Amino acid sequence: MDLISTLIEADKLRAKDQHEKARELLVRLALEFPTNPVVQYKTACVYDYIGQEKEAVPYYLAAIENDLPGDDLRGAYLGLGSTYRTLGQYAESKKILQAGLGQFPDANEMKIFLAMTLYNLGEHHEAVSSLIKILAETTSDEKIIDYERAILFYAEDLNKKWD
Predict the structure, then answer these.
(1) What's the pLDDT tens digit per position in 115-149?
(2) What span, in angstroms and rounded, lies between the C-alpha atoms of 92 and 82?
(3) Contact, 97 vs 77, CB < 8 A?
(4) How many CB atoms lie within 10 A of CB 155?
């Protein structure tokens, strides 16, 4: 099986909304090229897309372990962390998302998924604080911008009271 042409064919199938056919191609490729991180990542993504998150996990792990490059690596951390969360594996989700943020500290999308995981773990203060910070730092809403300094200050300690 030719790697490049099969990957192109799988991408074309996905573009035509033929994800099951793409999955079949990618699974065969993944078996033939078990250490190719791009193949593993694309296989994980197609499983995720068709709602078979549990099946996506080993492919995400293989992609990350085999040095998937750049933005795809960022996507793999997010995909795996999100998948673990949807499977109720919150501790694993937190671990993966934190590892991803260690490599991509400005990945706000990952911070949001981590906040959801923290919520699931009962770490509500950290979850809400994180979301408030992201909102304050990324908004274009002028009224929020006017209060950015205060919002960021309060986000640090949501329970603080003044006498």
Answers:
(1) 999 999 999 999 999 999 999 999 999 999 999 99
(2) 10
(3) yes
(4) 19
